[in-house]
Amino acid sequence: MELVELQVETVAIDWRGYPVVKLREKGGPRAIFIWIGLAEASAISMQMEGQRPPRPMTHDLIVSLLSHFGVQLERVTITDVRDATYFAELTVTMGDVEKAIDCRPSDAIAIAVRVDAPIFIEDGLLDRLDAARQETEKELSSKAMLVDSDEPTIH
Question: Which one is the CATH code of 3-144: 3.40.50.40, 3.20.20.70, 3.10.690.10, 3.40.1080.10?
Answer without folding.
Answer: 3.10.690.10
